[in-house]
Write a structure and sequence with these properties.
This protein is of the alpha+beta class. It contains 3 helices and 11 strands. It has a single domain, classed as outer membrane lipoprotein receptor (LolB), chain A. Strand 1 and strand 2 form a beta hairpin.
């Protein structure tokens, strides 16, 4: 009987810790208006580095360190510019449509079970519109630290965030696309 009570208490404590993690993440995300971070992106072993600014809802500006590559989301479309090409994609057809939508993330996180990885990461797996998105948070400070998706060509894309700063003053001009200038 004593073992049974110990087991019940352990499950109850574990549930409270998980609920606390989820609540902390939700509170942190609710209070985040924007994020600025350096990133490392790995797409099928090809690693690229850069800096991004996200402003909720659905705006993003990323500049890659090499290749003169820039990605901009104005909330409706995703624009990718390199030295030799320029592409425009409907944001709604990309996983970033969900990642850049704070209200969507808040709703999904509140509904999902978390997974603790190596006692350092909290992962939520979102399944939406035939897309699978893993969102990662730091277990110590509950900051968003990355995501894993499939890109438009079905390549696995892992994006890791570091040097995060939130609620910084942002020049709105960075979210303007060439067609808006």
């Amino acid at each position: 009987m004593l073992r049974f009570l110990f087991f019940v208490c352990l499950i109850s404590l574990s549930s409270e810790v998980n609920a606390n993690n989820k609540d902390q993440i939700i509170n942190k995300l609710k209070n985040t208006l924007n994020l600025n971070f350096d990133f490392e992106q790995n797409i099928n072993g090809k690693i690229e580095l850069g800096n991004c600014t996200i402003q909720y809802p659905k705006k993003m500006f990323c500049k890659y360190d090499k290749k003169n590559k820039i990605i901009v989301s104005n909330g409706k479309s995703l624009f990718v510019k390199t030295t030799s090409s320029y592409y425009r994609y409907p944001l709604g057809k990309t996983p970033l449509n969900f990642i850049l939508d704070k209200n969507f993330l808040l709703k999904k996180i509140s509904e999902l079970n978390e997974e603790i990885i190596n006692n350092s990461l909290i992962k939520f797996t979102i399944k939406e519109n035939n897309q699978l998105i893993d969102i990662f948070f730091n277990i110590k400070n509950y900051e968003l630290i990355g995501w894993q998706t499939k890109d438009i060509y079905q390549n696995t894309a892992v994006t890791l965030l570091y040097s995060n700063k939130s609620n910084q003053e942002i020049d709105e001009k960075i979210f303007k696309t060439p067609l808006q200038n």
